[in-house]
Amino acid sequence: MMLELDIQSALEHDVSIEYKEYENEILTDILLEYIEFESVVFTNCKFINCNFHKTSFYHVKLNHCQFANCNFTEGYFRHVQMINCKGDGADFSQSAFMNTAIESGSYFYTNFTETLWKNSSINNANMSNAFIPDSKLKSFTIQNTNLEKVDFFKTNLKGIDVSTCNIAGITVSENLNEIRGLIVDVSQSSDIARLIGVKIK
Length: 201
Prior knowledge:
CATH topology: Pectate Lyase C-like
Radius of gyration: 18 Å
Low-confidence stretches: none
Shape: elongated
Largest sheet: 10 strands, parallel
Number of helices: 2
Structural class: mainly beta
Number of strands: 12
Mean pLDDT: 95
Distance between the termini: 60 Å
Strand content: 25-35%
CATH superfamily: E3 ubiquitin-protein ligase SopA
């Protein structure tokens, strides 16, 4: 397992992992805290119960990878692509996503609490039942994504265009401050109406 050996070496010598390509690797119960990955490509890799706490990713591509239920808390992602990955139930709370793109894939019940998204995007993904409260979205775009029952409590969505997304059952605060200035399609009016307690016949 080349990746596991590289991780052990990085931890022992306190160095980053750079300019590597990993394919079809499977890692279970591995501790990767504080490691930096730079210019690395992961393809069809599977991470099971791994701890990426405070791990940093720079110019990294994750292609068809699985990291469901892994811990990425306080992570840092810059110029990262996540393409058709499975991250259901993973914990990304208090992480920063800078110039990062999530393309397709599943993030069902994934935790993005207190995250920062800047110059980043999510497209064609399943984010249903995800948690994105207390987060900051700056120059952020999202398209064709399932946002059903996503928790946006105390996350300002002003200027965010969700007109191509499913927003049924999203969670916001009672004063509805989160959705003021939200851009929606006329077909989503019933979803907004339900949030404010209006019934449309």
